Amino acid sequence: MSNEEKKGGWLRVLGIITLTFLIAFLAFFAALEFSLHRMMDPVYQSKRIERIMRNEQKKFERFEKNMMENPFEPQKTAPMLVSLVKENNQYKIIVNLKPLGGDDKNIKVNLENQVISVYGDIEKKEHKSEEIMSFAQSYYLDEKLISDKITKEKIGDKYIITIPFEE
């Protein structure tokens, strides 16, 4: 290879590099010009501000809705857990165990001066959430109760407390 050919090869490489940098500079300048023009365009800016204001309005409405709800009020109605039935010479208190996970060991019964109270609670822990449910129901019964003959039995998802009384 002669010096002329070497010189021509280097000039070609130098020309390609220069042309590449020039095209990159022009592309950067065009993108910068487009961005600056868009930033200075009042129509674009007003649409952008309107979009931001709509988003902020939605956030405020969600916040306002959450503030209007009472955090201590239950969000869903609880199922009826305890019911009282009077049959022949006995009362039956029926506790629905399904919401309590079917476990009757969390049920406590207390009889004092013709007032029978049923208490229950359960804690459910799942992944990162914890649900605590408790209830208490009391009944005043007019009849003279026979407290030493109270029976408790579990039948399926029902916990039945039978309280005989005298007429």
Describe this structure in words.
The protein has 2 domains: 3-68; 82-166, Immunoglobulin-like (Sandwich). It is an alpha+beta fold and 167 residues long. The mean pLDDT is 84. Helix content is 39%, strand content 35%.
Provide the fold topology.
Elements: H1 3-40, H2 42-68, E1 82-87, E2 90-96, E3 107-112, E4 115-126, E5 129-140, E6 144-145, E7 151-155, E8 158-166
Give a nutshell description of this structure.
By secondary structure, the protein is an alpha+beta fold. The chain is 39% helix and 35% strand. The strands form 2 sheets. Strands 1, 2, 6, 7 and 8 form a 5-stranded antiparallel β-sheet that branches. The chain has a 3-stranded antiparallel β-sheet with strand order 3-4-5, with no helix packed on it.
